[in-house]
Amino acid sequence: MAFFFERGSGRLVGGGGLHKADWTLRKFEIDYWCRSGCGGQGLITEAVRTLADHAMTVLRAHRLELTVDDENRKSWQLAERAGFSLEGLHRHAGFTPQGKLRNLRVYAKTSA
User: Which of 64, 82, 87, 102 is the most exposed place for a label (fewest CB within 10 A)?
Assistant: First the structure.
C-alpha cells in the first residue's frame, strides 16, 4: 500500500497499491482511494499513472487491471484518464457496503 500526499502541504489525499500479484503472468490489480474533499485535483490520477508505470517498467508487468463500481463515474473516469481501457461489465459481481448487488467495470492496461 502506498499513500499519496499533496505536494507542498504534505496532506494525505489518498492511497493505493498493487494487489493480486500473479508473477507467472506478470499481472497485477491496482486499487486506489481518495480522501473526501481531495478529489478533482488530478492527484489520484497522477498517483495511479505512477503506480502503473512502476508496475510496467520495474516489475515488467504484462497486464494491469482496475475494477470499479459501475455507478462510481468519477472512479471509472479516473481509470480512463490514467490510460486504462474498458474491457467489460461484470453484472451482479459484488455488493455495495449496504448489501445491494452492483455491477463492476473491468479496465486493463497491457504491455506493448
Answer: 87
Question: Roughly what angle, to the nearest 10 degrees, separates helices 43-57 and 73-81?
Answer: 50
- If one counts the domains in the chain, the total is 1
Integer Cα distance of 17 and 89 in angstroms: 22
Residue pair 18/65 in contact (Cβ under 8 Å)? The answer is no
- What CATH number does residue 35 fall under? 3.40.630.30
Per-residue pLDDT of the chain (112 residues; tens, 9 = 90+): 666 666 677 776 777 889 999 999 999 999 888 767 656 666 788 888 989 999 999 999 999 999 999 998 988 999 999 999 999 999 999 898 899 999 999 999 998 7
Domain holding 29, by residue range, is 2-110
For residues 3 and 18, is the Cβ–Cβ distance under 8 A?
no
CB-neighbour burial class of residue 62 (10 A; exposed 0-12, middle 13-18, buried 19+): middle
